[in-house]
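tl;dr need the bound structure. longer version: we got a ligand (adenosine-5'-diphosphate) that a collaborator sent over and nobodys looked at where it sits. i said id run it. heres the input, straight from their email, havent touched it
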Amino acid sequence: TEMELMKIQKLESVGVLAGGIAHDFNNILTAILGNISLARMIAKDNAQIESRLVEAEKACLRAKDLTQQLLTFSKGGTPVKKATSLADMLKEATTFLLRGSNIKPEFEIPENLWLVDADEGQLAQVINNLVINAKQAMPNGGKLNIKAYNYFYDGRSDLPLKRGRYVCFLVEDHGVGIDEKSLQRIFDPYFTTKKTGTGLGLAVTFSIIKKHSGYITAQSKVGQGTTFYVYLPASDKKADKKKKTAETYSRLKG
Ligand code: ADP
């Protein structure tokens, strides 16, 4: 729709504008972070200095996240697509992002999930954004359900998709939820309800999915949780046979 197009164009102009400095900025932040980390080691016996350094570190990490989101668009934003195992990426990224937290991922992903036609880096960014939001929505911990299934869209319902094969994945949290008014704005650039949020995560996610000819939508109930549904076109290629054999073998071996 026109609204969606405007959203993407707004974000892209921001990206092109900021993209040039985002790269240099990212390097500068890396240098600052490295020095903070060293200073923390030196100051580890001084709680007052240590806590100031932790705050500085957090601020730098937020700035890094911001530049990362902007960099996606400075690279032209055109996805470089190849047959990608969404199943592997979902499991690996989620497990990594929730490691050491009080949130337990639960996967429902079939063995025969189709590969998707996607830019791996951009897909990782989508998964990161959704999982980190879910994590932040569950400050007291809990279960995070990650589900995926093969889906043939016959064009008969009113999804904004072309007829064809898709992989649908769900990121289902049991966190704070989103009220109806906010739910209409979550994909807008700069919309955030968080003290230190950038409001770019879902806007970037939305436009990545759009550029993959996919579709993303969310359902939420305040106090119960939020579910994001993402549809991505399936690849024509079959899953890597060699890898499958190795996996089957390790499974048989237990
Ligand atoms: P940010 O995380 O920086 O605020 P996002 O674009 O990722 O930016 O998210 C925008 C807003 O959408 C958040 O501030 C929050 O209000 C809402 N939101 C996104 N994901 C969730 C979720 N899983 N649970 C509750 N609220 C969410």
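gonna send this back to them w/ a short note. The CA atoms of residues 83 and 117 lie 5 Å apart.
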